[in-house]
Amino acid sequence: MNHQRAGFATAIFLILALATDAAAEISESKRKQIQELLAISGGASMPEQMAQQQTYVELMRIRPSYQPMMEFAVSEQQDLSKEEQQKLLEKLSDFEAFATAFQTRFTERLNFSKIVAEVYYPLYDEAFSEDDLTEMLAFYRTRVGRKTIELMPGIMQSAAKGIDEAVRPTAIEVIQGIVADERAKLAP
Predict the structure, then answer these.
(1) What is the pLDDT of residues 33-59, one digit of tens each?
(2) Residue 80 gets which letter from DSSP?
(3) Which DSSP symbol is given to 45?
(4) Residues 120-173 pLDDT 10s
(5) Closest Cα to residue 67, out of 87, 95, 107, 33?
(6) What is the CB neighbour count within 10 angstroms for residue 51?
(7) Please, which residues have CB within 8 angstroms of residue 89's CB and are 6 or more apart in sequence?
(8) DSSP secondary-structure letter at 63?
């Protein structure tokens, strides 16, 4: 088990090291363009949004297996008696209290500004040339560019809602069809 953890930790370290190296290869002028593009397009608030979103995602991953996960974590506390382990497990039974503590500690320990730079800068570097970034920046500085930045999130949200409403009836029909097919297989 410890060998697996060490191997996993080594793999994560190598992935992060490679990502950091890739981010370090971006020219300073291109890095400034990417930084400005992110700032103009609302990316300045990205670290805070990412922290909130990622905390939510992690908690939603944890929630379904929270109790077994806590039972395992407590069982690993082998220096505690069974009675002490049970008391600790009772203290950890409140998921909402855990979620509050998790959110605080998770966001304190992660530097989301650094993560944005390590993730987005290489993506923009790979996808766009300096000329592309120059043209994008010129566009986003215009009245229509600023309007695009302002309105696009709402347009995308409305479009997603419209698509959901358009496909939901078909999804329900498909589900009902699968249920009917499986039910027919049960009939003698």
Answers:
(1) 998 998 888 766 778 888 888 999 999
(2) S
(3) G
(4) 899 999 999 999 999 999 999 999 999 998 898 899 989 999 999 999 999 999
(5) 95
(6) 19
(7) 70, 71, 74
(8) G
